[in-house]
Amino acid sequence: MLILAIKPGHDGGIAALRDGRLLFSLESEKDSYRRYTGLTPATVLSAAELCDGIPDVIALGGWYRRGVIDRHIGAGYEGQEIHDGFRDFFGKRVRYFSSSHERSHIMMALGLAPESDAEFRTVLVWEGYTGAYYVVDRNARIVRTIPVLSQPGVRYAQLFAIADPAYPSDATHQRFQDSGKLMALAAFGRAEDADADIVATVDRLLDPASELPLPKTDFRDSPVYDSGVTSQATKTAAALLTRRVFQLFEDTARRQLPAGTPLLISGGCGLNCDWNGLWRQSDHFSSVFVPPCTNDSGSAIGTAVDALHHTTGRYTVDWNVYGGLPFDRDSIPDSSVWSHRPLDHHRLARTLSAGRVVAWVQGRWEIGPRALGHRSLLAEPFTARTRDRLNEIKAREDYRPIAPCCRAEDVGDLFEGDFDDPYMLYFRKVKSSELHAVTHVDGSARVQTVSRTDNAELHTLLSAFARERGAGVLCNTSLNFNGRGFINRMSDLVEYCEARGIDDMVVGDDWYSRRGAAA
């Protein structure tokens, strides 16, 4: 059975399952489209190329459309509603399925999670609008729903907007990028330093009766208002808000959820590595699973899983994180500018050790927002100037941390918490005093662990780098134009590297170096 699922709205995407195996998940922002963009014709055509036949099931994720007339798309945003029927699709009678956006998060987490014989599992969906627990039985039936806080993601992002003088005072829209920036700033503050006015600001943001985003002017009396995103008031408020949001959800779990169930996390708040680490430390759940596409980038997969479950009773999916499109070699780098040689991992490790930044492209792109060694910028991790240079290349704020990738066998020596994290979703403390480029202000790092099974090419390079520098660890940040998804074609890659001063590009087994660059 071939199921093709579509996610409308922002973070548009399309995914396909063939007999319970993920064929692909394509997010429209990738291939250098704007971040969070809706579904594009190019994405639909790419999906059509990858499908080996006309789908048996077309699955539409529920959404809403606002305009002159507000209306639902498919089964709508919230609730547990399912639509099931038949439609004609390119001359073939196919099953038409739709379920809510809320369900897409639940089913994505269930479908991608490791198989479990637990009688019940708990799914936490915390995203822009939904903040609730769902107790799910082994047949994927929701037996209990426990609302906690509506709009947790919107509330979190609004603090950054309140502090940012560039955010219009009368605006009421959400900027999706603000949550990640606030997460970085929270590390610079201490919740204990919050005075009564900052506490009052956070209290208002967490008031369950408020519908956000509120006009910024409603917070004109707050010390955070237009104080600047790097002001101490903002950093302190960010630390307090981060703590308070987690406490709300953890306290509810302890009061209302049975202890000892596996916890599956879904929704954009699952990208907050601080919160993920706190869930790992909690003794209330038997285990914690966060998928790499926990935000809306995984919603098309979730709708496909829901359709699979509805039609077959199955919901566990065979999947790989490298489920995007292959790299498009739409051009050949100009030989007068770029020299070519076969990839030599040992020589490249020496180049990295000497301080060069390398654009690294392998195979198909990663599903979800994290670069996991297929669309990455790599660099040595030992000097603070490397961090500054990478942020300059990416045109990012200087307070944003740079993440490392590390061989699984080296993790315990360099970082606290010797556990696997192939999807780069947890913070852990840095033990080594030498990793200046990847150590955040609070002494933490968001580490991608790399094994030979997960990513053989990157593991080989890390092993070569370990022979050079004694540790198999590198800076790893996403390969993208600012505000755009991953680069996925040679013409864009060359333009990017020539504009940003990057002298080395590795695409598969091909290594291109800029002529005239220092050896």
Your description of this structure?
The chain is α/β, with parallel strands linked by helices and 519 residues long. The protein is 29% helix and 22% strand. The chain has helices at residues 41-50, 101-112, 152-163, 178-186, 196-205, 232-256, 273-281, 299-312, 345-353, 384-393, 411-414, 456-469, 490-500, and strands spanning 2-7, 13-18, 21-27, 57-61, 63-65, 71-73, 82-89, 92-99, 120-126, 131-137, 142-147, 262-266, 287-289, 338-342, 358-361, 375-379, 404-407, 427-429, 444-446, 448-450, 473-478, 504-507, 510-514. The strands form five sheets. Strands 14-23-22-15-16-21-17-20 form an eight-stranded mixed beta sheet. Helix 4 crosses helix 6 (232-256). It is globular and about 60 Å long. The termini are far apart.
Percentage of residues assigned to helices: 25-40%
Q: Give the helix tally.
A: 13
If you compute it from the alpha carbons, what radius of gyration comes out, rounded to the nearest whole angstrom? Answer: 23 Å
Major beta sheet summary: 8 strands, mixed
Distance between the termini: 53 Å
What are the low-pLDDT stretches, counting only 5+ consecutive residues below 50?
A: none
Please give a handful of descriptors for the protein shown.
519 residues; alpha/beta; 8-stranded mixed sheet; 6-stranded mixed sheet; 13 helices; 29% helix; globular
